[in-house]
Specification:
Blueprint (H helix, E strand, L loop, with lengths): L1 H17 L12 H5 L2 H27 L18 H34 L15 H29 L7 E8 L2 E6 L4 E5 L21 E4 L2 E9 L4 E5 L4 E5 L5 E7 L4 E6 L12 E7 L1 H14 L21
Helix pairs in contact: 1-3, 4-5
Length: about 325
């Protein structure tokens, strides 16, 4: 304890001097006596609270970095967009109430037990080893809680698996450290890189905006075919409640439900994929149907179209024979 007090004293000495709580010409060498001093305890409390708020701010800023519209000191989930995000947000809120109720109940039970069955009140402790009612209750109640959680959870899982009920397909490939978006039906593909800080224009977000976002029409259900060129990545857009890993040699499926309304959705790779892992932002830009058609025409001129090999009849296909 004394070692800990000494470390805390050395760590907060400069802070205390700066706040004039301890004069610089009157340094107290007796650590034990200063620990019990109320002013010292108050200063330590303030410094620890400041550190806690600093850490909280860092955590909030990291969480906000994946939001549709990043907000400083954001707490909780961002506003959901689309049916999947709405259902996931409802499940989150349900679980939050359940977890809070369980935590409060357990805390109250511990406090009651410590007070009611303390040594002074019970000099001769009870030797009870079994209680049928309590054993039934602590078995049945958790099962009922799990059932309450399981029903909406399974409904959401099966709903997220409806990749066949979509309007269009976008193939996404993760690489170190950029994304490639391919539109098979429109026969176009392009790479998306983060905009460097020195190249940012007014209104663009640092570490989030890209040169070529993924453009989709509003009010559309989109199937995502996701794969990787090298290491594992993770396509994560929290506002649309989509997060799926990219694995080289394997194609994973997911789908998003982009609601009506022109909006820009931000995300990031959240699987550590190398030294520039933090420079793989994701931008999905939802536009109107007319603007999307105009964008497709412009994109076909700007980006090289996909050259698909001509289909051959079965009679013209020649197979190599093994010697």
């Amino acid at each position: 304890m004394n070692c800990f007090a000494a470390r805390m004293w050395r760590r907060n000495r400069n802070f205390l001097r700066g706040s004039k709580m301890i004069p610089s010409n009157n340094v107290v060498h007796n650590v034990g006596s200063r620990i019990m001093d109320s002013s010292f305890i108050g200063a330590v409390t303030k410094s620890l609270m400041g550190a806690a708020f600093t850490v909280g701010g860092v955590i909030a800023s990291v969480g906000a970095a994946g939001a549709a519209e990043p907000k400083p000191w954001q707490m909780g989930l961002q506003d959901p967009s689309g049916s999947i995000a709405d259902k996931a947000n409802d499940l989150h809120n349900l679980l939050l109430w359940i977890i809070t109720a369980i935590s409060v109940f357990v805390l109250a039970l511990l406090i009651y037990t410590c007070i009611r069955y303390r040594e002074g009140r019970n000099p001769v402790p009870s030797k009870t080893s079994h209680h049928a009612v309590i054993e039934v209750v602590w078995t049945v109640v958790p099962v009922l809680i799990l059932l309450v959680i399981a029903i909406p959870s399974f409904k959401l899982l099966y709903y997220m698996d409806r990749t066949d009920e979509t309007d269009m397909v976008v193939k996404i490939t993760g690489a170190q450290w950029y994304w490639t978006y391919e539109y098979p039906d429109q026969e176009l593909a392009y790479d998306s890189y983060m905009i460097a800080t020195e190249d940012l224009e007014e209104g663009q977000k640092r570490l989030l905006d890209v040169d070529y976002p993924m453009v989709v029409p509003e009010g559309t259900r989109i199937k995502l075919l996701i794969q990787a060129n090298d290491v594992m990545h993770s396509f994560f857009v929290p506002s649309l409640a989509v997060q799926i890993y990219t694995v080289a040699g394997r194609t994973n499926e997911a789908w998003i439900d982009v609601p009506m309304g022109e909006k820009t959705y931000y995300g990031q790779c959240n699987q550590i994929c190398g030294v520039n892992h933090s420079y793989m932002p994701i931008v999905i830009k939802a536009v109107s149907a007319d603007d999307y058609k105009a964008w497709v025409n412009e994109a076909k001129e700007e980006f090289a179209t996909l050259d698909r090999p001509a289909q051959k009849d079965d009679a013209t296909i020649q197979l190599a024979e093994a010697e």
